[in-house]
Amino acid sequence: MLNVRNAERKWYGDKMLNVIREKFADEVINNYKEYCARQELYLKFGYDSEKERQFIIENAIPIDEEILEIGTGKGYLAVELARKGYYFSSIDIDDECLHIARLNLKYFSFESNVKITKQNAEQLSFKDNSFNTVFMINTLHHLKHPYKVLSEIIRVISIQGKLVIGDFSEEGFEFMDKIHSMEGKTHERGKVSLKDIERYLLNKGFLVENFSSKFQNIIIIKFW
Asked: Chain centroid to CA 215: how far?
């Protein structure tokens, strides 16, 4: 009788596991459909987000592992880096964004490429000099204390490392404001700009390079 009950328990457990898997699979597919719909909307306004991500990665090459991404967001840059064969760590503080990022990585079967963790970028768990390349893309304008985050990045990046920071251009911000307004939302924007960060790093004696597209500005900081 005990064996029968154990078998029943296992059967119900396996059945529930299959239900959870099917539900997650549906969520993965529906999330990707929402992404595609959003990209179509973006393209109507002339904004090609996938092209912008390629612009960032191309200018960041060579990209030396170990790699850290500050601000996973919904995982769009993570997907592009994984698609190119990179393995790396990515952190964010927002649970909803991390969940969507995992769905996006799952859709393309890139889960093993990216180690995602929930962390506050002002207090990273990583040891000093842990990473050779750090990305922080379209995250700066969300930060409450950007200089604290920058200090932490400098701590965890290696002496010969490279930091890639990107944020929207003025035209990019105008576009994002328009999209958020259409959805009845407000696109929050902090007081510290990419130019402010560039001046700060130049005053510290770091080498800074600039690259710009219509919607995106990036600076690449070298620590040697």
From this structure: 17
φ/ψ bin of 138: left (φ > 0), alpha (ψ from -120 to 50), beta (otherwise):
left
Q: List, for residues 148-160, the tens digit of each pLDDT value.
A: 999 999 999 999 9
Pick one of 3.30.460.10, 3.40.50.300, 3.90.110.10, 3.40.50.150 as the CATH number of 46-222. Answer: 3.40.50.150
Q: Where are the domains of the chain?
A: 1-44, 46-222
C-beta of residue 65 within 8 angstroms of C-beta of residue 135: no
Residues in the chain: 224
Q: What six digits make up the tokens of 186? A: 């407000």
Distance (Å, whole) CA 173 – CA 26: 33
Instruction: Using only the alpha carbons of the chain, give its radius of gyration.
Output: 20
pLDDT digit string (tens) for 57-72?
999 999 999 999 999 9
Do residues 91 and 72 touch, judged by C-beta distance below 8 A? yes
d(CA 209, CA 201): 11
The residues, any chain, with a CB within 8 Å of residue 216's CB and separated by 6 or more, are: 52, 55, 56, 166, 167, 168, 169, 172
The residues, any chain, with a CB within 8 Å of residue 100's CB and separated by 6 or more, are 31, 74, 75
